[in-house]
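Sat 14:20. Reprocessing the chain from the morning session after the first attempt stalled halfway. Input below, unchanged.
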Amino acid sequence: MAMSLEQTKARIKSVSSTMKITKAMELVSTAKLKTAKDLNAKVTPYRDEVFEVVSYCVENVDKTINKYLNVNEKSDKKLFIIINSTLGLCGGYNINMEKFATNLINKEKDEIILVGNKIASYLNNNNYTINRIIDLPSLSMKENVSKELTHYLIHEFDLGKYHSVHLLSTEFINSLTFTPKATQLLPLTNIKNTKKMTKELLFEPSPEEVLENLIPFYITTALKTLMLESMLCEQASRRTAMETANDNAEELQEKLLLEFNKSRQASITQEITEISGAANAKN
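Finished this time. Tokens:
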């Protein structure tokens, strides 16, 4: 009986220590989630406008004269940039991206660039080709990460190495709902966005030249803003996961305390019975 009490006490202590960790992580994730939400709210309208202008340009140019509007026929290899996390304990965030990505990627010929390294081991173990792994930047979204990646993508596409380039990110619906999505970066497509241009735009010197200069800007904007949205989803998923873990730990702790009190009461009752029995035997 004493051993059982000690074991129960040790489990209660272990659960209590775990609760401190999950609660701390929940608080940190909540703070980061608020920061990410504020940033995302600021950049989303900007991103939508950029996408809308690019879409309008694509609709109004001769697609035969711009190589970025047509797939590379020299290659059948696609490049996928996958945004995932660097840290774990974020619920199904990375698992959902793994499932989504593996349904789109042909492991025999396609290549992958990872932004974040959490799913790298899974992809390596399943024989996917990882071109490079980029550390996930902080919420401040440093410009050099997206600009360097944009330069690399355009350079490789110019060489005819890839048939097309796709960005896999996670779309934020609300704090409990987020889904993986794919955005084709190259060649440019008619981007279907939340609204359509209601007025005809005047381009100087021409839509073709405007689009030519917009392409690197569009890719950089897509990388930065969709990366930020994915990081928002990561923090929301981690906060939910830690909140659930904390609730489960509290429930388990209550059960263990009840079990401990029952065992202690049984032990006390047993000792009283033994003392009473011994006293009666002397009489």
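The chain is about 60% helix and 15% strand.
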